Amino acid sequence: MTTEIIFAGFGGQGVILAGKILTLAGMSEDKYVSHIPSYGAEMRGGTANCSVIVSDEEVASPVIEKPDVVVALNKPSMTKFEKWLKPGGLLIYNSSLIDTEPTRKDIRTLALPANDMAAETNNARGANMVVLGCLAKVCPGMISGVKPFEFALDEAISARNKKFNPINIATIEAAYNKDYDIKGE
User: Where's the Pyruvate/ketoisovalerate oxidoreductase catalytic domain (predicted)?
Assistant: First the structure.
């Protein structure tokens, strides 16, 4: 099992953090991982993306040319990264902020209302946590449920923000427990 993922969105949406958390969760399960963050010109409000690989085998190269999964939290990210997906790949897009359908017909798509789902768990800034729970659910074998994210959050989150870990875990768990309608399957 090897899953290559691109997370993308505006700076401030937590795409880099989501990638880091997924990487740490994979490490906690003795997976081989890679995480490469990429920031736009501005941090908050600019574009940000990261490449993550989670694998049962050593990662030969951290560079992702044709990802298995693209997570787009805003419209510019979907426009840019949809074309990168390999045929049959999965595009998860934040339908809370993206009001258009993907254009490719050779990929699978999942309209995920990430902001709305985060708000339902009283975690208004938790769209990235919704994505993590969704990924654990729709990419079986990559991460085994919610438990690895507890370790990852404890490692990734600064001491002053650890007080948010319980709500972040609750958000991940709520997203993991949902059923998803992936189009193109």
Answer: 11-177
